[in-house]
Amino acid sequence: MHLRENIQLALEGLRANKMRSLLTMLGIIIGIAAVVGIVTVGDGMTTAVTGHMGGLGANNITVHVSPRGGGGGPMDNLGGTQIMPQEHDRITNNMIDLFVEMHSNSVAAIGLTSPAGVGHAQFDSMYSHISVVGVNSGYQITSGANIFQGNFISDEDVFGASFVAVVSDVLVAELFEEGQNPLGQNINAVIGSESKNFTIIGVFEHNSSPHSFASSMPIIGGGGGQIGRTHFYIPISTANQISENSDTHQSFTITAQPNVNMGEFEGVVRGFFSEFYADNPRFRIGTANMDRILNMTEDIMGTMAIAVAVIAGISLIVGGVGVMNIMLVSVTERTREIGTRKALGARNSSIRMQFIVEAVIICGIGGILGIILGVILGYLGSSLLGYAALPTMPIIIISVIFSMTIGLFFGYYPASKAAKLSPIEALRHE
Q1: Which of 231, 353, 376, 428 has the lowest CB atom count within 10 Å?
Q2: Is there a contact between 354 and 12 (Cβ–Cβ < 8 Å)?
Q3: Can you give the pLDDT at residue 299?
Q4: How far is CA 134 from CA 95, 111, 243, 326, in A?
Q5: Cα gap 192→119, rounded to integer Å
Q6: Is 277 within 8 Å of 95 (Cβ atoms)?
Q7: Residue-wise over 391-414: b if at least 16 C-beta within 10 A, else e?
Q8: Sheet holding 251-256, edge to edge
Q9: Distance between CA atoms of residues 277 and 88, nearest Å
């Protein structure tokens, strides 16, 4: 019997037993749908996470002071108490200036920050909750903050310790009437017990700020700022005056030029600053390359998605057992048919092929239905994360091949059993 005839017989058998065929396919449908859906949602999660992290700058290297022998954080290994580097342990501006001078061709910007506290900004009777951060001019590049109105903090502002501020569009919406120009407006910023007047020189897009997620946590209570606390950027020199911070840094960010090899440059950065800490018994220099962190995150997310998909794929084995069970029932039901065909000269290979083709078609159709269901579930699931995704062509092809392989594997035993039946015994079967 030709392959075409076997396929026709298999399809006719499916049409004759629609409900049984659907129940047989159910395990395959659920298994394939689970695998495709989970991999698709995993891709969406990876895109979401790397998208947020990528916004912090793939060309950025963060340099930080951390305790020796620890995991990179400011924690004492013995007592678990927090250890903060003292002023003489921190990175100085002279160190940074010397590095920039030696590697000017590789450095695009240096981002410095100094937290000045939290509070609220007030204009007339309206106010907005803020987190005040002192920054230098290079911070705009290292953070990727999008200034769509006015200007960012300049070197002149830092040198003169000016009382100017770059505020978020969220703050502008809370303090000013629609259409009112915030540039040049004087607002009062209450930071702890301090109250200072600042002139707005620029407005940044809140969602472009690297701290937008943390700073947008809702604040319970109060008469204003219901959207959340946003960052209020002022010159770093002004922030140090307000908070009485020293002009040193526990960490800062370097943005490299686009053509720089980030792996090699990170080693150069770590080596340079580590020389200043060679004799420091308690602290050392650590670095973090965002490009490396992104790659690690993608690997972790991909591994997690594959692991969960493999677990979901176990249901395919259950589906395959169901296919084998139905095929064994089918062999029993068609024993006289098999005996008749053998008596008319059908070879064992033809009988075997007939049942294998039927099992493969059952699993193949179940796989296609499972892929359709998996695409729908995966798209809906990834859409909830804010990054709608569709399965890639390789995963679809692999799913189809895998489902048909399940049919081949679990259909072989019933097919072999049918092929080995004795014609005489088969014709006697009632």
Answers
A1: 428
A2: no
A3: 78
A4: 20, 11, 10, 72
A5: 6
A6: no
A7: beeebbeebbebbbebbbbbbbeb
A8: 107-111, 251-256, 60-67, 283-289
A9: 11
In order of 42, 314, 388, 395, 397, the CA distances from 39 in angstroms are 5, 15, 13, 8, 14
- Distance (Å, whole) CA 199 – CA 176: 14
CA 20, CA 43: separation in Å to the nearest integer?
35
Which pLDDT value is given to residue 127?
87
Helix (H) or strand (E) holding 12: helix 3-16
Q: Specify the pLDDT at position 426.
A: 55
DSSP 8-state code for residue 91: E
What value, to the nearest 5°, has the Cα angle with vertex 143 and ends 216 and 292?
A: 105
At residue 286, what are phi and psi to the nearest 5 degrees? -120, 155
Both structure tokens of 286: 């650590």
Greater confidence (97 vs 413) lies with 97
Q: Give dist(CA 367, CA 312) in Å, integer.
A: 14
Question: 3-class SS at 137?
Answer: coil
Residue 29, SS3 per DSSP = helix
**Cβ(309)–Cβ(391) under 8 Å?**
no
Q: Which residue has the tokens 């950025």?
A: 60
Q: What predicted TM-score, i.e. pTM, was given to this entire model?
A: 0.60
CA Rg value for the chain: 34
The pLDDT value recorded for residue 274 is 94
Question: What is residue 360's predicted lDDT score, i.e. its pLDDT?
Answer: 83
Tokens describing residue 68: 């020796």
Report the alpha-carbon distance of residue 198 to residue 120 in Å, rounded: 12
The two tokens of residue 250 are 């526990």
Q: What is the mean pLDDT of the chain?
A: 80
Give which of 327, 348, 329, 326 is closest to 339, Cα–Cα: 348
Where do we find the tokens 């140090």?
240
- Yes or no: say if 195 and 188 are a contact pair by the CB < 8 Å rule: yes
CB 107 within 8 A of CB 100: yes
pLDDT at position 218: 36
